[in-house]
Amino acid sequence: MVQKADGMNYAPKGKVEAVVGPGEFRFAAMALDHGHIYGQCNGLVEAGAELVKVYDPDPEKVARFVDTYPGTAVAKQADEILSDPSIHLVAAAAIPNQRGPLGCRVMQAGKDYLTDKTPFTTTAQLESARQVVRETGRRYAVYYSERLHVESAVYAGNLIEQGAIGEVVHVMGLGPHRLSAASRPDWFFDKEQYGGILCDIGSHQIEQFLYYVGAKDATVTQARVANYANPGTPELEDWGDATLVADNGATFYFRVDWFTPDGLRTWGDGRTMIVGTEGTIELRKYLDVAQDERGDHVYLVNREGEQHLCVNGEVGFPFFGDLILDCLNGTENAMTQSHTFKAAELCLVAQEMADRAGLLTLNRTI
User: Fold this and answer.
1) Hey, what domains does the chain have and what are their CATH numbers?
2) Which of 1, 94, 192, 292 could bridge across to 288 with cysteines, CB 3.0–4.6 Å?
């Protein structure tokens, strides 16, 4: 059963739709610092990839991983994976400020790389990765799971491509998360290591905006961060929001936070609202509050009327199969490298703008 209460361990499972035969695409897992590694591996395995090795210096993390994926060989050191010529790709979910350097090391070893979001915590890391991509020709892919591993989000992209709501002019993204502070590792509360809330979970939001509006670039016009309710961990940002304008004129507002109440059945009531010239789409990604505990609700309104569709279990997750074929064939059908890096760049820009403005706190007088 998929863990829905804790976002850090949310690892969707979908249809098994293999795009390759046994042994045609082999991958390994490294740096098991975030539970999203399980979502990354689930998607690749369901698309036909063969998980062959795992490495992490923490034996407890490795034991849990091997229990989930029996038969995976345990490497004693990272070089056992990096030097294995039969491994096509490395999937990793390192501490955020280590993801960029690890990706460069993987690509320099001749392998493609799939990292958890956020892919970078500094602009210097991003520029290093861009340079290594140019030098090696390898792929630096990012698991922007709130679009890639959510069926309603995939379906919305299909609707937009089909012209169901005309040209997209505005997107609003809401990304609340449950804090679950007691289960979080120390790095989660260290700004240098996690990068800031807009850099981290804001990365999902900015990526989907660029995708839905078909933009190649955007300008961040406003960004704010706050620590409203966690003074005991002063480097944690529990609130962030930002506004962007795309190069084609479409606009975007998003809000991310760590305020999901304990009474909600899932880790966050993630929603996306998309306005087009001929209709609207609302996504209720993980449940329909107080009604349906299933996720993947799509509310579509256009000239044909009003529709409520629950697409849970109906769409699948094509990103993973497309990524495998891209790695093998040198194509860019899953996600272009320029899009991957642009989303990451804009997250860093938003975070920097918010940092310059200063951290907001609540000042109450009685």
Assistant:
1) 7-144 (3.40.50.720), 147-317+349-357 (3.30.360.10)
2) 292
